[in-house]
Amino acid sequence: AIRITQSPSSLSASTGDRVTITCRASQGISSHLAWYQQKPGKAPNLLIYAASTLQSGVPSRFSGSGSGTDFTLTISCLQSEDFATYYCQQYYTYPWTFGQGTKVEIK
Amino acid sequence: EVQLVESGGGLVQPGGSLRLSCAASGFTFSYYWMSWVRQAPGKGLEWVANIKQDGSEKYYVDSVKGRFTISRDNAKNSLYLQMNSLRAEDTAVYYCARVNWGIVDYWGQGTLVTVAS
């Protein structure tokens, strides 16, 4: 199975900060990577797919980049509603696998 | 509006069985692959199984192979997960999800399965 290593596991940031989360795949997955946001007690919400394509309705402060094995999610100007846990997921091959998650907390 | 509503979760003893259901609406169910994803309490997300539009292809994570069966009834716009030989480590919220060109784009609210004696 492809391992996805996500970092950091948590971070503290302030509103207005630029935040970067990374995922590294144990083997190449082309651009078959998605990013999800999850708030406590809620289902995940798709933010980005194909590594860099913004899902409809997602604010433009979210962006994704990368291909092959290294990927990045950037939140350009953190808003209060962005405090949540973020997951990356590869859908290049079965079994689909997720990163361990990054909890973005208020500093 | 896409809606996915899971049901069937609950408390079950180790070794027991449970069948989860997911009622889909707001889209043409038979056009899409569907998925089950789970999340143990306080833990991350784990993909469980996928099923093709006509049910002809199914994929599972190794930890549930031979114990769980994913199925669907397109006439009823419903997805199912039959879970047998349940273990404590299967305790999780189980999400039903729509797969759109390989991407999970909509999720249900989840149903909690607790395996304990």
Give a verbal description of the structure:
The complex is a heterodimer of chains A (107) and B (117). Chain A is mostly beta strands and 107 residues long. Chain A has strands at residues 4-7, 10-13, 19-25, 33-38, 45-49, 53-54, 62-67, 70-75, 85-90, 97-98, 102-106. In chain A, strands 2, 4, 5, 6, 9, 10 and 11 form a 7-stranded mixed β-sheet that branches. Chain A has a 4-stranded antiparallel β-sheet with strand order 1-3-8-7, with no helix packed on it. In chain A, a hairpin with a 6-residue loop joins strand 4 and strand 5 (45-49). Chain A is globular and about 35 Å long. Chain B is 0% helix and 55% strand. Chain B has no helices and 11 strands. In chain B, strands 2, 4, 5, 6, 9, 10 and 11 form a 7-stranded mixed β-sheet that branches. The mean pLDDT of chain B is 98. Classes of the chains: A mainly beta (107), B mainly beta (117).
Concise structural overview:
The complex is a heterodimer of chains A (107) and B (117). Chain A is an all-beta fold and 107 residues long. Chain A is built from no helices and eleven strands.
Rg over C-alpha atoms of chain A, rounded to the nearest angstrom? 13 Å
Mean pLDDT of chain A: 97
Relative helix content of chain A: under 10%
What is the approximate shape of chain B? Answer: globular
Order of helices and strands of chain A: EEEEEEEEEEE
> Helix tally of chain A?
0
Low-confidence stretches of chain A: none
Count of DSSP strands of chain B? 11
Quick one: biggest sheet of chain B? 7 strands, mixed
Keywords for this structure?
heterodimer, A: 107 residues, mainly beta, four-stranded antiparallel beta sheet, 11 strands, 50% strand, globular, B: 117 residues, seven-stranded mixed beta sheet, 0% helix
